[in-house]
Amino acid sequence: MPADFLLYTSPTPNGHKVSVFLEELKAVYGNTYDVERIDLSKNTQKEPWFIKLNPNGRIPVLVDHRRNDFAVFETAAILLYLQQHYDKEGKFGFNPTTDPDHYSEELQWIFFAHGGVGPMQGQANHFNKYAPESIPYAKKRYTEETKRLYGVLEIRLQDRDYLVGPGRGTYGIADINVLAWIRFHKTAGVESLDEWPRLKDWFERATTRPAFQAGIAVP
User: Fold this and answer.
1) Could you point out which of 8, 94, 99, 119 has its C-alpha 20 to 30 Å from the C-alpha of 42?
2) For the chain, what is the mean pLDDT?
């Protein structure tokens, strides 16, 4: 019997977001998926067959075999898609009709990470580790902005265990969407999370989940 999904991915923060959530769905509901590793060093993601799946030429891409091989790109969109269609008990997200306020908060924190932490830390990662020349201004600018964004998460987590949900919150896609980036904080020039104790507690609590550990081992 074929797997439910095919994931085109690489071992990057964006790739790990989706594989982590797929592992969570697998643990709860038994959903299965196959993986095809995309070699970014060879620009496989720019080949015509891949561009048909994602015109932007970026990983990850999810192909849903259960829904006529429907293809989804952009990590936040993939997380929202999977939660909408396959998290039937609402363990990892919120229903926009029956719980519109928490659903809105979920979107707010997903968009915060997608438009802030990802792009800024991505630049910090690049200039601190991968740039062909050292540019102190770029390193400082993007590392400091990454730290500021961590500070925003620290504020949110002052009296919470997770970013969204009633009471102290519940673990879900809003958390997964940003945790995958924070794993690479040292690459961004942030040697320790000690400056943000609530963020550090949240990070350690979430990333020790068995499904999270399984997801970051993919591919």
Assistant:
1) 119
2) 98
